[in-house]
From TrEMBL, chain A:
<dbReference type="InterPro" id="IPR001851">
    <property type="entry name" value="ABC_transp_permease"/>
</dbReference>
<dbReference type="GO" id="GO:0006865">
    <property type="term" value="P:amino acid transport"/>
</dbReference>
<keyword id="KW-0812">Transmembrane</keyword>
<protein>
    <submittedName>
        <fullName>Branched-chain amino acid ABC transporter permease</fullName>
    </submittedName>
</protein>
<dbReference type="GO" id="GO:0005886">
    <property type="term" value="C:plasma membrane"/>
</dbReference>
TrEMBL record, chain B:
<dbReference type="GO" id="GO:0005886">
    <property type="term" value="C:plasma membrane"/>
</dbReference>
<feature type="domain" description="ABC transporter">
    <location>
        <begin position="5"/>
        <end position="246"/>
    </location>
</feature>
<dbReference type="GO" id="GO:0005524">
    <property type="term" value="F:ATP binding"/>
</dbReference>
<protein>
    <submittedName>
        <fullName>ABC transporter ATP-binding protein</fullName>
    </submittedName>
</protein>
<keyword id="KW-0547">Nucleotide-binding</keyword>
TrEMBL record, chain C:
<feature type="transmembrane region" description="Helical">
    <location>
        <begin position="80"/>
        <end position="101"/>
    </location>
</feature>
<feature type="transmembrane region" description="Helical">
    <location>
        <begin position="57"/>
        <end position="74"/>
    </location>
</feature>
<feature type="transmembrane region" description="Helical">
    <location>
        <begin position="282"/>
        <end position="305"/>
    </location>
</feature>
<keyword id="KW-0472">Membrane</keyword>
<feature type="transmembrane region" description="Helical">
    <location>
        <begin position="108"/>
        <end position="125"/>
    </location>
</feature>
From TrEMBL, chain D:
<dbReference type="GO" id="GO:0006865">
    <property type="term" value="P:amino acid transport"/>
</dbReference>
<keyword id="KW-0813">Transport</keyword>
<dbReference type="Pfam" id="PF13458">
    <property type="entry name" value="Peripla_BP_6"/>
</dbReference>
<dbReference type="InterPro" id="IPR051010">
    <property type="entry name" value="BCAA_transport"/>
</dbReference>
<keyword id="KW-0732">Signal</keyword>
Length: 311, 260, 315, 441
């Protein structure tokens, strides 16, 4: 073991860096989904569409800003703007006109409503943005690289990926934790997550909480998409692969748990990059293996509270 | 007489609250034992422990001489201890008749995948059972369409359908309209006596206790504070102050025993 | 209620006759309907789990297992009458092992564990490239049907008949199962699982029985799909294929065993017509159809039929 | 618009449902009267990540159909196109294939981008006795493992597409000692690596393969892979990826200066050049799955290529990429086959069998070369490989030191399987690599 570390310790360190960067993105998307699931109890498949549309929107706005000659730093504003625009338009529309009509229905119907929506939005993206890969590299180029020493050499990393993304993810985590625990609106959300009946019985307007949470979740998904636009190319189907991964995170993390989502994202991100370094063929199944392993040990998810079966 | 169901030094605490603090209680075969006591004293906890829903932190539970401490609810019910619930636990998408038939099926074996649940024999037994509880008019109604009193009776009927030797009932008359309460109790008593079931029930209504119980146990702060015949126990000034004093006024004003 | 159950059989026979007629009059429909019937059988399994309130997002695993079982065994056992039960056994065995694990879980955990396992299987199919040919898939060699080496349209007819036979068989089986105590206990899992425990019934075992049955059904469906398309690829196990099964279940309606078949036929035909009209936006059309059904006909297509029948009876 | 009208197609579909049609088998023998229109079914990706190729392919088909119809059609018969999406999977594809043949009565099918789709469609073509041109899929297995009377391929296959870049590398960068591969995790990614590895082991034994990475198809982040490659410092990085995957891989490699450490071999990068632009630095080896590029150094008919490129750019605001050339090849082959079969039939319109009979030995023009279909149904298509270079006329890298490989030198003869043939190769193969073409003018 010690010998192995001597040989591979540095490699492991590099894998950790990559893992943290990719975990940051996974977290950004999954935490929104988990929040929405915790409060509305709707597993929102269209979350993947929000991610994709947020990404496309960021690329469009960013390229537009560059075209009209705005300074380079404006590209960061483009990312944020894209997320807010996407989430604040799509979120309330969908919650108000679709989800609200099926809250009383069985969960499979709610889920299928979002699935149908996902199929529709998927084709809409193709109509609006076409099928050719779209990307927007501005912010990455702007931030440049940081050199990490390795074996008498250096490995350049994108500052955007290893510094900005983790910082944004940490700020989001911290901000969310503060919001949920220290503010009234946040406590209301937590109350609804823990016990919807009791919360509504106490006079909480569940409708408003749902609307706010859903919109907030949509903004987070779109932000995830916008943040990935500078490093990845957006193609049709990118939303689909995002949503499966986010589902896995939610199930592993536990209902509505933001710290759970963070830890799960970290495990998946690092697990995958370690797999790429030492056992590449395992990379694809890492999220699923982690989920199965966690649920074997903790059937309610990492941070899930075992639901007392009330009698 | 030997005890059919017996607790020895049973202990369970939630956080700092002691629901059972060394309980010794023996239920004799054939008797109706009422458990009374202030809210939160641990009465329901006793039922939950005896049926395997909660695991005790100390002590033993014996049924028919064999230890059942820590067994699963399924195993305990198969040995002959059934229970009913303070909040009725019905299958809300099924009719009352189907609920009863499911209980009968659970007793006789549900693994007959090619014969319908409502096969003639079970259907007849279900209807007979419902008839004895006066539930026949509601047989075809979905369980989620019933009023509270009917749900309560159906809940008990399902437990009775299992043909237990001991039936543990958690507030069998809460939620039943005051005007019907005594009739319900009569029905219940008749059904249980005729099938020779031993009954333990948690109850807040002292009229019901007086009428129904052979013995009364007073549960207070996780201990059995008093045990004896209804007349003796209910006359105890200590009991009157601590337990009945809480329950009586509620009944006088609302016409109902105070719910949990 | 009884009347509706009898009407159900009548409608099933009418539907079968209509399908045969359509397959007879229009050769290309024969294939589409074969696949639709097969998917209907798989969806029937989904419906059993839906009765217990559980949604599996991984049943494509069993469809793919059945299909690959046929593809791998056909060179050695080139007989449909043997391949079909073999596929069912393979799916049933895997279903039992997986079921023992997932039947402990409910709701999102149940759904996602199923999804995870099907995705792991998908990856295995892709990774074991030298055995499975990866995404290129495997061609199913020519097989005999009841000893007859068939070709062209007579082979297609045989597979169609097999699909129709399976649909009827499993339709009746599922009907009997759902009416039985175990089947009724499934719905009890959804509404009040703990009570089952206090009645001495293991909810886990009840769910397991439905799970194994659903795996067998999906396996048979996969076998028929393999025999009909004569080419199997890992895409059969992808999560979207599982999603499609749930989609069809909801579209058809979970209220009766005819729902899956109504749903599957509608799904396939809408997709064909949508694809013929706007080849690159069929997803949007399917999505819109599903939305409309959920918003305006919550019982699905079977719900609409049943309501019509009920009204006529009442009138 | 002469191409498709949704309304009439829906009508035709409705008419087909319920009308009693002849059994499919008869269509091949049906008397061949000259039809009023020539119906062509085309399967291509219209959804999912592979629509990156599928949609340009369809665009090219629509453009070509219009051009052909403006000139009076094929043999005087206007053509009409029917598109099928490969995205939903094999069962949908097979159903649509049957519908087009049996209900829409298409005369010819152009099948598939995905090799899996082609493998499913070719036997179907035989069963339905319908001429099917494999217009884009790559797998060499089809004509090496089976023989077909109705299926033909109007472009090269994976073997020459991998042999050409390997030989180019061996000729122009002969002293590399280590190599890493980063291919998409699906059949093409695995297949292309298997071919490359087998040939490399024969032609340059002893190359150390330091990493075999197969990231998920459709992956959006290659950071871990790039890190691994930066740490390993292989002399050569091979990637047969394409589409969004390749764009992202190039982008992340460029940002992290991996291009400075290793020479990249990207056999499909032609399709990404315009999008990745200057991110892809000079000095790396790229190919285009065939003999096509808008700056082709020596096209057989420069005017034809220019016209094709200009028309496509005008219409779709992008340079044509290899699927569009492949589509043009399929149309050209079809046109030539109809001409040949009609001539052989005494000037009368050919039946399905007669049309099929025209393909073996058929010669036809691509925008850049004259191609021939061998007797096994496989076309002989040259392969163009070049090295990236900067050119101020373009906002993206162009190819320099371009080599056009004659097809016979980079693929097995009829009847021999690729891996068997590869084992017979000698170092001679490298010395026979042609010199780079000097662009005319």
């Amino acid at each position: 073991m010690g010998e192995w570390f001597e040989q591979n310790g540095a490699l492991l360190g590099l894998a950790l860096l990559d893992g943290i960067a990719s975990a940051a993105l996974i977290f950004m998307v999954a935490v929104g989904l988990n929040l929405v699931f915790g409060v509305l109890r709707v597993l929102n498949v269209a979350h993947g569409s929000f991610f994709a549309i947020g990404g496309y929107m960021a690329a469009s706005i960013g390229l537009l800003m560059t075209a009209v000659g705005l300074p380079p730093w404006a590209s960061f504003a483009a990312l944020l703007l894209a997320a807010v625009v996407t989430g604040a338009i799509l979120g309330p529309l969908i919650e108000r006109f679709l989800l609200r009509r099926v809250y009383a229905e069985e969960s499979v119907l709610q889920l299928l409503v979002t699935f149908a929506l996902f199929m529709i939005l998927e084709d809409l993206q193709k109509i609006v943005w076409g099928v050719q890969p779209v990307s927007f590299g501005g912010p990455v180029a702007l931030m440049g690289t940081v050199d990490v020493p390795f074996a008498g050499d250096v490995i350049p990393y994108n500052a955007y990926q290893v510094i900005l993304l983790p910082v944004v993810a940490l700020l989001t985590l911290g901000g969310l934790a503060w919001f949920l625990r220290r503010t009234l609106a946040g406590r209301v959300i937590v109350a609804v997550t823990l016990d919807r009946e009791a919360a509504t019985a106490m006079g909480i307007d569940a409708g408003r909480v749902f609307l706010l949470t859903f919109t907030f979740g949509a903004v987070l998904a779109a932000l995830g998409g916008a943040l990935s636009a500078p490093t990845a190319s957006l193609v049709p189907g990118v939303g689909a692969s995002t949503i499966v991964l986010s589902f896995a995170v939610v199930a592993t993390a536990g209902l509505g748990q933001i710290e759970g989502a963070a830890l799960t994202a970290l495990m998946i991100g690092i697990g995958r990059s370690v797999a790429v370094t030492f056992e590449p063929e395992l990379e694809v199944v890492v999220p699923y293996l982690i989920m199965v392993a966690v649920l074997l040990l903790r059937p309610q998810g990492l941070f899930g509270v075992p639901e007392t079966r009330r009698i | 007489m030997s005890a059919l169901l017996e607790a020895r030094g049973l202990r369970l605490a939630f956080g700092g609250v002691k629901a059972a603090d060394g309980i010794d209680l023996a239920v004799t075969a054939g008797e109706f034992l009422a458990i009374i006591g202030p809210n939160g004293a641990g009465k329901t906890t006793f039922i939950n422990m005896a049926t395997g829903y909660l695991r005790s932190q100390g002590g033993q539970i014996l049924f028919d001489g064999a230890e059942i401490t820590g067994r699963s609810p399924r195993e305990i019910v198969r040995r002959g201890i059934a229970r009913s619930f303070q909040l009725p636990q019905l299958f809300s998408e099924h009719t009352v008749e189907e609920n009863a038939a499911l209980a009968i099926a659970a007793r006789d074996g549900i693994w007959s995948p090619f014969r319908p649940l409502l096969r003639p024999a079970w259907r007849e037994e279900a209807r007979d059972l419902l008839d004895r509880f006066g539930l026949l008019p509601a047989a075809a109604l979905r369980a989620d369409a019933l009023n509270e009193g009917t749900r309560k009776l159906a809940d008990i009927a399902m437990a009775v359908a299992l043909r237990p030797r001991v039936l543990l009932m958690d507030e069998p008359t809460s939620g039943v309209a005051a005007s019907e309460k005594m009739a319900v109790v009569e029905t219940l008593a008749r059904v249980l006596r005729s099938s020779g079931v031993t009954a333990v029930f948690v109850e807040h209504d002292m009229d019901v206790v007086e009428r129904f119980a052979d013995r009364v146990a007073v549960w207070a702060q996780g201990r059995i504070a008093a045990l004896g015949s209804p007349a003796a126990v209910l006359a105890d000034p200590e009991v009157q102050r601590n337990v009945i004093g809480i329950a009586r006024p509620a009944r006088a004003t609302g016409g109902r025993a105070a719910d949990a | 209620m009884r009347g509706l159950r009898r009407a159900e059989i009548l409608i099933a026979l009418l539907l079968a006759a209509a399908i045969v007629l359509a397959a007879f009059s229009t050769p290309w429909l024969r294939f589409v309907l074969t696949v639709a019937l097969a998917k209907g059988v798989a969806v029937l399994g989904i419906l059993l789990l839906l009765r217990a309130g559980q949604v599996s997002f991984g049943h494509a695993l069993y469809v793919a297992l059945g299909a690959y079982a046929v593809a791998f065994l056909a060179p050695r056992v080139p007989e449909a009458a043997l391949l079909l039960p073999l596929a069912a056994v393979v799916a049933g065995l895997v279903g039992t092992v997986v079921g023992l694990f997932v039947s402990r879980y409910r709701e999102i955990f149940f759904g996602m564990l199923n999804l995870a396992l099907s995705m792991v299987f998908y990856s295995v199919l892709e990774k074991l490239y030298h055995i499975t040919r990866g995404t290129d898939g495997i061609r199913v060699p020519a097989i005999t049907v009841l000893g007859q080496p068939l070709e062209g349209s007579s082979y297609d007819w045989a597979v169609f008949a097999m699909a129709l036979g399976l649909a009827l068989l499993f339709g009746l089986l599922a009907r009997a199962y759902l009416a039985s105590p175990v089947g009724q206990a499934l719905a009890a899992i959804k509404t009040r699982e703990t009570r089952l425990d206090f009645m001495g019934v293991s909810p886990r075992r009840v769910l397991l029985s439905a799970y194994v049955l659903s795996a067998v059904m999906a396996g048979c469906a996969g076998a028929v799909i393999a025999m009909a398309t004569r080419h199997v690829t890992p895409l059969l196990a992808y999560w979207t294929a599982s999603g499609e099964l749930v989609f069809i279940a909801v579209l058809g309606g979970a209220g009766g065993v005819l729902g899956p078949f109504l749903g599957a036929a509608t799904f396939e035909l809408v997709r064909v017509y949508a694809a013929a009209t706007v080849a690159d936006a069929w997803g949007m059309i399917l999505g819109a159809v599903l939305l409309l059904v959920i918003l305006f006909a919550r019982g699905g297509l079977w719900g609409i039929v049943a309501a019509r029948l009920g009204r006529r009876r009442a009138a | 618009m002469p191409v498709t009208s949704p309304l009439t197609r829906r009508g035709a579909l409705a008419a087909g449902f319920g009308s009693v049609l002849l059994p499919a088998g008869l269509s091949a023998q049906a008397p061949a009267a000259k039809p009023s229109e020539l119906k062509i079914g085309i399967t291509t990706f219209l959804s999912g990540p592979a629509s990156v190729f599928g949609v340009p392919g369809r665009n090219a088909a629509e453009m070509l159909a219009e051009e052909i119809n403006r000139e009076g059609g094929i043999g005087g018969v206007p053509i009409r196109l029917f598109f099928v999406d490969e995205g939903p999977g094999i069962d949908h594809l097979v159903g649509e294939f049957r519908r087009l043949v049996q209900n829409e009565k298409v005369d010819v099918m152009l099948a598939s981008i995905s090799s899996g789709s082609c493998l499913a469609c070719t036997p179907l073509a035989e069963e339905l006795r319908k001429v099917t041109l494999l217009w884009d899929c790559g797998t060499q297995r089809i004509f090496e493992e089976g023989s077909y009377k109705y299926a033909f391929r109007s472009q090269a296959n994976s073997t020459p597409e991998m042999m050409a870049p390997l030989l180019y590398l061996l000729k122009h960068k002969p002293d590399f000692r280590s190599l890493a591969v980063v291919n998409q995790d699906y059949a093409w990614g695995r297949d292309s690596w298997e071919l490359w590895k087998a040939a490399m082991d024969v032609l340059k034994p002893g190359v150390r393969v330091v990493a075999e990475l197969f990231p998920r198809f459709g992956a959006t982040d290659f950071s871990a892979e790039v890190t691994r490659l930066l740490a390993l410092r292989p002399d050569v990085v091979l990637s047969t990826s394409w589409g969004g995957d390749l764009d992202t891989f190039i982008r992340q490699s460029a940002e992290r200066r991996l291009f400075e450490r290793s020479t990249f071999v990207l056999p499909l990068a032609e399709s990404s050049l315009e999008r990745v632009g200057r991110l892809l630095p000079p000095g790396h080896i790229v190919g285009s799955r065939g003999d096509h590029w808008h700056q082709h150094p020596r096209p057989a008919d420069p005017a034809a290529l220019q016209r094709f490129v200009a028309n496509y750019r005008r219409r779709f605001n992008a340079y044509p990429i290899y699927p569009t050339y492949h589509m043009a090849q399929a149309f050209s082959a079809l046109r030539a086959a109809y001409a040949k079969a009609t001539a052989a039939n005494g000037g009368n319109w050919p039946s399905d069998v007669q049309l099929a009979g025209a393909f073996p030995g058929l010669e036809f023009d691509s925008p850049t070369a004259r191609l021939r279909i061998r007797e096994d149904g496989q076309a002989l298509e040259p392969q163009l490989i070049g090295t990236t270079a900067q050119d101020d006329r373009f906002p993206f890298p162009i190819m320099d030191r371009m080599v056009v490989f004659p097809p016979e030198t980079i693929m097995p003869p009829v009847g021999q399987k690729s891996l068997d043939w590869i084992r017979t190769l000698t170092a001679d193969a490298v010395s026979r690599v042609p010199d780079p073409v000097r662009p005319a003018g």
